[in-house]
């Protein structure tokens, strides 16, 4: 059960990745499988910290190739005997359609609404095959520990309210309350598959993260977004500037400089900022400073950013989502603002 590959222990379900299961949990899974008798094998996932906190799930390639769509689409998640459903984005790396490569399911508000936590076990049961127009998955939740104290505690099939195991550890740490900050780092092992990419270290609240997810649901997108948390240096009246986190810049912006250099253009390059729902645009200059003995690599928006910040009334703690636009002659980014 600790192998990285899929573990086919039954014709009715497979284990994804590393699952540190107790005997009681294994019995719960078997009992649930016997009860639902799935037509398509169920994917059993023990939620990692990264999946629970960032609301992203890497679907194992072998399983996805057989039972999940072979293109970017929306997957509908539902709970047993519940009327509500969640529309979640399913993304395949553009260079690996139907072949090798990661498949990512962005769980969005599903994690928040169902109180999924690290260590919980989710059984993903495809209800339709890939030939159907709508791909629907029923999710059965087995909790790591009882959450009877939580508002709207789960009553889904397969819940193990009250059961604990010494192997699984003690009382679960509660998530930060609204208004309490937690730190986001882009050094995660799954950073390349995240819906959002941040600066090196950014503190956001759970409420802000939920707002980001709500905003993204309104947008047709191809991930990831770059998220900038406005600080005093980015919105001050005298000489504000915006610096992109290096992981995002290295992957998506440095190649633009390489292309410009190939055309014989040196120095800062033009970057056009657009606003959601606005007809005008803001021309800016993007500067790339390479590492020296005293500094690190930096990607900074200089000329033009003060006008953008002023015209759009940006304040400290506002969040800006930057979406790199495709098929544009000039380097262009659409900016979506989530107010503090």
From TrEMBL:
| Keyword annotations from UniProtKB, A to Z | DNA-binding, Nucleus, Transcription, Transcription regulation
Query: What Pfam families is this protein classified in?
Result: B3 (PF02362)
Q: According to the UniProt entry, which residue ranges have a biased composition of type Polar residues? A: 157-166
Known CDD domains for this protein? B3_DNA
The annotated region (Disordered) lies at 150-186
Mind telling me which GO cellular component terms the entry cites?
nucleus
Q: What name does this protein carry?
A: TF-B3 domain-containing protein
